[in-house]
Input
Amino acid sequence: MSNTTHTFKPSLPPPTLNVGVIGWLRTNLFSSVGNTLLTLVALYLIWLVVPPIFNWAFLQADWAGATRADCTAEGACWVFVKERFGQFMYGFYPAELRWRVDLTAVLAVVGAAPLFFDRFKHKARYGIALLVAYPVIAFWLLYGGFGLQVVPSSAWGGLMLTIVIAAVGIAGALPLGILLALGRRSSLPAIKVICVTTIEFWRGVPLITVLFLSSVMLPLFLPEGLSLDKLLRAVVMVVIFEAAYIAEVVRGGMQAIPKGQYEAAAAMGLGYWRTMGLVILPQALKLVIPGIVNTFIALFKDTSLVIIIGLFDFLNSIKRATADPAWLGMSTEGYVFAALVYWVFCFAMSSYSAHLERKLNTGHTR
Amino acid sequence: MSEAIKQAVVSDKMMIHMQGVNKWYGQFHVLKDINLAVTQGERIVLCGPSGSGKSTTIRCINRLEEHQQGQIIVDGTELTNDLKQIERIRSEVGMVFQHFNLFPHLTVLQNCTLAPLWVRKMPRKEAEEIAMHYLQRVRIPEQAHKYPGQLSGGQQQRVAIARALCMKPKIMLFDEPTSALDPEMVKEVLDTMIGLAQDGMTMLCVTHEMGFARTVANRVIFMDKGEIVEQAPPDQFFDHPQNERTKLFLGQILH
Amino acid sequence: MQNTGNASPASGSFFTDPRKRAWLFQIVAVVIVVAIGWFLFNNTQTNLQHRGITSGFGFLQNSAGFGISQHLIDYTESDTYSRVFLVGLLNTLLVSALGIVLATIIGFTLGVARLSPNWLIRRLAGVYIETIRNIPPLLQIFFWYFAVLSPLPGPRQSLELGEVFFVNNRGLYMPAPVAAPGMWPFWIALLVAVVGSVLLRRWARARQHLTGLPFPVLWCSLGLLILLPGLTVVISGVPFDWDMPVLQGFNFRGGWVVIPELISIVMALSLYTAAFIGETVRSGIQSVSHGQTEAASSLGLRPGLTLRLVIIPQALRVIIPPLTSQYLNLVKNSSLAAAIGYPEMVSLFAGTVLNQTGQAIETMMITMSVYLAISISISVLMNVYNKRIALIER
Output
């Protein structure tokens, strides 16, 4: 019986046509006649669009100066944005008090930072404490009272107002949405019907009509003599509206929890609220964090609709500024700047949510 | 039965000819200088550790993977970038996958008639007759109007075999056809394959079913690190392996 | 509370018997809802009385007395509010329909481009999607309306396309067809061609069943659809005269005009929704496993046939439910047109009519029920469709 040992051939480098820059170009851009044509068309399009925009936004743009006269006609007039920047950010918030808004924002970032560290142990407890404490402090800083000068909500505006509406909207919508989701999954028919009707009603109408409701109907609904601040009314309606969307997201998460979890909880003798609070919701909510972030992004974009009821959010303050006779013809600059700001916020959040989704996915497959 | 298979006609008509075939995934050299000749009626089993290039080898034969160097001639037609020739070869070569890959939106019967209708341009009645014929052969004609999702794994794999047979292929490629099956379903699929072998089908099977290799194959090929390390008739391969690597591998899988 | 499990069903006290507790919960919930409803209703009644606002839908028969810049049906200032409702509804539906058609075309193109083997095309589609879907639709409407269309020159300096189409800051002007003697033969020929194509398709199917030979139905139908009507034009003259837009004084007369509000809203909404549809289509196609493509090609099916017979039917099941919800979003977003004064449901009813009549409750009710009706009917259709698919699968 003979014994041979096979000597393996050495691995050879692939033919140059298949790897490196050439290989990449061949497979990705020029793999066939049609593909080559597409590449050329795409390059032409890029050449057509990008250089003029780049020219307009940077090379020929005007950055220095203080009035419209400082701008030449060729490029973008960023002087306009620079001059009105304060108004875009804070609305009519008194200039000498704007540090309070800044401080609120800084506190939010610093406060939330530990939640993004994987090593931080007491995330849940800390998060809940933050959810309770932060709104109180933020309200005090923004509105005033207790030693701080009061700034009425009618002076709030700009990006600050946009963020306030979106943040309060989502913070209020979360608990309400979770309750609605629980109700929709409930085995009690009356509760289920109430919740399903509520959810489907708010999901079926456009936000704009809801805002109209807040401005024309809410005053009629309230007892005589009680009148709510315009901003507060809008925020209340946004919370109810958004809760319906959150409810559907949370319901999706609850449906993804296997039946065995309910059975195990029941076997341990847990009642309904403990089963939900200790077993189901913690798992479901973790699953739907990306969905909640996406809902928040949608809400952040939708806050721009408050323009309809005359609130001075970010978009509205830019719209007003472009209508200023001293800065006529600055629409493009204004809206491009607005788009950029919205884009940065939304893109950052959607990247984060995509990152979370990937993280959760790998957690499930492994 | 095993004797009957062994005596099944092997002609010397060349069906597959691979010469100096090399393939890379990016920088990774997956197939190194593969030379393989298969004649009509031959039944070849490819085995080897995972990542040894055995699946890639048979996937090159019907151009599911593209080789970068060397020559592959199937039934007298060379595989090039010419789409017409690729289609011709594909309709002559049937393939069965590890995960069945049945079309879930079509019934079993529709799965079987799809290619005869659209590639062979057969009348529907004829296509359905052929499909029923092969479904009978794999012993599931009663499932013809069900959807793949309603069948067991073993039944699905038999449908997949019937689907490939409906094109009346000259060569059948099997890519680990029993690896995704529950143990009790392996036999029904292997029996179907043995039946095919008895009819003189040219077959290339990537499989770890060594019992199957012993009874059915005329030749067992052992691959490792993208190369053909050893090839021999099954008796010789299993009882007197020549190579250290082969022995080691057989030692690991035969218990 | 912990004793729930131990208590025997018959002897549970009121608070420990789960069935009784369930009843209690439900009764409490219903009472709360009714109480809130009553509270709101009561407040509203008093408020309305004190402010002297009449209620009821009688106002719908009153004359509106305001003009509307775009109406698909005849409308004059003396028409009633119910006519205004119809005008607004039709305008909303017009925006939605145009938006859905355009968004679908652009969206499917984007989705396919996202999966293109061409890196550059893939990337361009990706950049487009990531840019557009992260910018509020209202901002995009403003951009089109204030930054693109408003700065256009006036009618006298219109941009023109072959002296047929004119674009200026008052809209897009194009020729309108007017019936000419050749119209009837033309319509009849077109009808014949359509019926012929349908029959041809049936015949080709039957033939393929029998003989297996496919028939180039698409090309023959196209030929039929072009040739037959074309023939009537040659024989009995043109079917339509074109009413050309002509500059008279300060504005154009004649032809069809698309107002800038409509252009802005349709552009913005279709481009915005297309970005979402693109992602839907991409993930739908990707949800079909690669094994399906491999199985189809190993059977000898050409890539086009693989796409048509194997990939698309499976991808569509994944795509259609989120696609309808995108359509619904577009319909709801069409209400954003109110912000630039396009006369659709919200701006006409929740805006102008509400202001004129002061009947907030009735106008809001009418406006919201229109959207609710659209939403509910689409989700009912969706459920029917899902049931059908489920039936096919199991």
Remarks:
- Chain A has a mean pLDDT of 87.
